[in-house]
Write a sequence for this structure.
């Protein structure tokens, strides 16, 4: 691999130590698998634009640890995650879906609207031995919701869209009592207010908001959890593209 040497053991130990700082215990074998995922992403990035982060040490923080920060919120909201089924919207290179599945032993679906990315993630899943636990689909959230309404316990998303859009994506996919867990960077009050308005319409409510700082001054994170508590007051999903271009808020 070009550039910074890729020392899997060193990087796995870095991930374990950093996660421990947030109270997240990562088993060595899981850390090794997550680092292998990162290695596959950086290698594939040479021919397919999957990430701007190509330094392995930065990748541990900004991809792996950043993904794992969602795990405590999932467990806090729903308990033992091993029986849960999740969907990762806008998975990109498989973040946060693959690390979360490795950490929590969850089954799920990784979706993205870009077919090339999905094909790459399918190869990562195969290489990591995560079939049939994980499947990958090149599909938009609204289209999947028409076929799989109410099929998921958890929806995850990281830096994909504004809160109002994500809430609308998640509601028809979730069973009642299921949760949307979102990771955001610096978020303005306007976006939070829009998320609250959309949640009210979509039968969801904000149940927790946690503020975190990544190590090495790598960035600010907000982990927001919305729970589906009732039926939406509008028919969902709306036509494909409406949630993004004309959000309910």
């Amino acid at each position: 691999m070009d550039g910074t040497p890729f020392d899997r053991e060193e990087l796995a130990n870095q991930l374990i130590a950093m996660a421990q700082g947030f109270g997240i215990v990562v088993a060595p074998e899981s850390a090794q698998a997550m680092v292998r995922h990162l290695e596959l992403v950086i290698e594939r990035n040479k021919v397919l634009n999957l990430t701007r982060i190509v330094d392995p040490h930065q990748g541990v923080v900004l991809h792996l640890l950043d993904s794992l920060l969602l795990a405590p919120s999932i467990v806090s909201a729903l308990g033992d995650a091993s029986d849960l089924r999740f969907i990762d919207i806008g998975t990109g290179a498989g973040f946060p879906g693959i690390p979360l599945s490795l950490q929590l032993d969850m089954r799920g679906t990784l979706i993205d609207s870009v077919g090339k990315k999905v094909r790459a993630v399918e190869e990562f899943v195969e290489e990591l031995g995560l079939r049939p636990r994980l499947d990958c689909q090149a599909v938009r959230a609204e289209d999947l919701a028409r076929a799989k309404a109410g099929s998921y316990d958890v929806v995850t998303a990281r830096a994909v869209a504004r809160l109002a859009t994500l809430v609308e994506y998640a509601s028809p996919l979730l069973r009642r009592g299921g949760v949307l867990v979102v990771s955001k960077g610096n978020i303005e009050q306007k976006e939070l207010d829009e998320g609250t308005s959309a949640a009210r319409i979509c039968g969801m409510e904000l149940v927790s908001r946690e503020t975190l700082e990544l190590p090495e001054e790598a960035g600010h994170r907000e982990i927001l959890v919305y729970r589906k508590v009732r039926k939406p007051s509008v028919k969902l999903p709306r036509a494909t593209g409406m949630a993004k271009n004309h959000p309910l808020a």
In short: The first helix runs from residue 8 to 20. The CA atoms of residues 49 and 117 lie 9 Å apart. The chain is about 45% helix and 20% strand.
